[in-house]
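Just wondering, does anyone understand what follows?

——
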Amino acid sequence: MKLRWLTASLTILIPMSQAQEAASAPTAVEAPKPESKHFKVDQGTKIPVSMINSISTKTAQDGEKVYLETVFPILSGGRVIIPPGSYVSGTVTNIKRPGRVKGRGEFYLRFDAITLPNGVTRDFRANVGSLDGRAPEELDKSEGKIKSEGDKTGDALKVGEVTLIGAGVGSLAGQAAGSLAKGSLIGAGAGAAAGLAMVLLSRGPDAVLAKGTTLEMVLERPLQFDEPDIDFSSSMPRPSNASGGPLPSRRSNSGLGTGSRVPRT
């Protein structure tokens, strides 16, 4: 009987002891996960971009899409955040055709989104900060409006050319009638009137941003990216040419030396 009682007691006490040891043992602490780094492109950052398609007040409609790509890397915290070749989409608004008396075309360009080479996309807002110096269009920075060049010189030339033609025709008519000077004056007056009518009936130059035009975007608000967003290790490579090498990047020829030629692919 004593042996059975002792065995039963041990059977009860051993599990209780094991339970107490388990309760008193320190619990394993999970290692904290490393926090993802954040990268920010500050408000006011200037981002050079190049036009992929063309836009003109002659053919464009309000709401038409514009496509551009970045041409210079943007860095933050020692990392490339926006690589060259990132795509930017925009919209043309408030299109105005040039008039017949005050002949200047104009439109606004709104930037909507940027897509990095790895497919990460961010909506954003930016102003046009500057235009390619080779472009004849003008930028009204106070309003963000892009205007076509003025055509006062062209208007003057039109009037002058038609005036000379009229004077020549009048001289011939006056010579035939025996009054060369009078014929010239009448012809010049008629030519000037015809030239002025031509100017009033014709439109001024349209505002155009041609394919390849470089302009500068200025961020209106910061862009935020996490570290996985700027992992470009698996990004697809740029298209290659027929010889198997990478296509030359689209760059301005302004950096070429005198006499340099752009190689043909």
The chain has two domains: 38-150+205-229, 152-201. DSSP finds three helices and 15 strands in the chain. Residues 152-201 form one domain. Residues 155-159, 240-265 have pLDDT under 50 and may be disordered.
